[in-house]
């Protein structure tokens, strides 16, 4: 069975104190009665990681995620954070290729391929984001666009490595807009992505978790997570509220 994952992407929100309060509330509310096998990943800003990691240490279904890393191991890259640094403080997952990084920081498929390699080489799992704009969907090129994002950044990996990647489909028009993909739209894309992965990797595709992201909230999570190829969610705004994120976690 595929791993079910609910990941919260805090983006650039919360002071350290606020982040620790949120983490404590989450471990209190979702600390024990989460369905077994569900992994909850807190993708915090870099400065929160070490302290949040300590707070979640004794909760085996909680894991620590970063939101980005640099493509080089070390060197003169002022202001950047490398994969070995993240590994050294116990980070388990790293979001890569979020549409905000693609859009505001010009991250393209080639660069992301290098970042994927770094994360895997340092024993962590990429949460690789893909997704189309509204314009691309209206033009009917969204399926090709998204499968190409996977091919160009992931298809150099071997079977073992691809098995450690988590994919997050986040249609850009659904991020932060309150406009969620319908269950039919989500299922269509997720099934296509799995078929695309199977074309290259065969059976391994059935073990890869594909998360949906884009305006997931406590009201729509249950029906999205019920789609056969949706293995959980990557949640932005609603992951900043402990009650709502707990409800999302519990709806899987
Ligand atoms: P929202 O849930 O706020 O739409 O953000 C989605 C997202 O970008 C998660 O990475």
Question: Could you explain the architecture of this structure?
Answer:
- By secondary structure, this protein is of the alpha/beta class.
- The protein has a single domain (4-250), classed as Aldolase class I (TIM Barrel, Alpha-Beta Barrel).
- Helix content is 41%, strand content 15%.
- It has helices at residues 16-30, 49-56, 83-88, 99-104, 109-121, 134-138, 142-154, 159-162, 183-201, 221-225, 242-250, and strands at residues 4-9, 38-43, 62-66, 93-96, 125-130, 166-169, 210-213, 232-235.
- Strands 1-2-3-4-5-6-7-8 form an 8-stranded parallel barrel, surrounded by 5 helices.
- The longest helix has 19 residues, at 183-201.
- It is globular.
- The relative contact order is 0.15.
- 1,3-dihydroxyacetonephosphate (13P) is lined by residues 9, 98, 170, 175-176, 213-216, 234-238.
What attributes does this structure have?
252 residues, alpha/beta, TIM Barrel, eight-stranded parallel barrel, 11 helices, 15% strand, binds 1,3-dihydroxyacetonephosphate
């Amino acid at each position: 069975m595929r791993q079910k994952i609910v990941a919260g992407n805090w983006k650039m929100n919360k002071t350290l104190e606020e982040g620790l309060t949120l983490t404590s509330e989450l471990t209190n509310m979702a600390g024990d009665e989460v369905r077994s096998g569900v992994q909850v990943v807190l993708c915090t800003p870099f400065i929160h990681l070490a302290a949040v990691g300590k707070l979640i240490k004794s909760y085996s279904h909680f894991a620590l995620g970063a939101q980005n890393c640099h493509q080089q191991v070390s060197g003169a890259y002022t202001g950047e954070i490398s994969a070995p640094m993240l590994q050294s403080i116990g980070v388990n997952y790293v979001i890569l290729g979020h549409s905000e990084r693609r859009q505001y920081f010009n991250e393209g498929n080639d660069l992301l391929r290098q970042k994927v390699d770094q994360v895997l080489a340092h024993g962590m799992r990429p949460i690789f984001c893909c997704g189309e704009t509204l314009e691309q969907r209206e033009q009917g090129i969204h399926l090709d666009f998204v499968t190409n994002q996977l091919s160009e950044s992931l298809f150099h990996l071997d079977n073992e490595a691809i098995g450690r990647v988590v994919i997050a489909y986040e249609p850009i028009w659904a991020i932060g807009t309150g406009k969620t993909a319908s269950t039919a739209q989500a299922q269509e894309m997720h099934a296509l992505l799995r078929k695309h992965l199977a074309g290259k990797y065969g059976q391994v595709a059935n073990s890869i978790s594909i998360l949906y992201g884009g305006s997931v909230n406590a009201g729509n999570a249950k029906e999205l997570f019920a789609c056969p190829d949706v293995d959980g969610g990557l949640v932005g705004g609603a992951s900043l509220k402990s009650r709502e994120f707990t409800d999302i976690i519990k709806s899987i």
